[in-house]
Amino acid sequence: MAERSWDGHTWRRNEKGHVHKGDCHFRGRVGGEDCWCLFQADPHPVTWRVTDTDLTDASKGLYDHEGHTLYLRGHTHSEQECAGVHKFQRDRWLYVPPETP
Question: How many alpha carbons lie under 13 Å from residue 33 in its C-beta half-sphere?
Fold first, then answer.
């Protein structure tokens, strides 16, 4: 389990040699088991009206995945914080699935 972390949608392999510590990931529960998570909360579907400005604002924690806009509570998008999980493209933040081996 320590070789992977939950990104809110799927498991991602950690970089080779990575050692979990309190400032790199968050502790959480997935499927009833304790695990390491990349974000402090799982994403939630947006049920309110968002503007184009909201979608471009990194501080809102909004992103698109499979045709849905999702919200990550307490998250601000940045290259460092998103660690390849989200990227800004075509005027909005998008989820980037992990590469499969």
Answer: 7
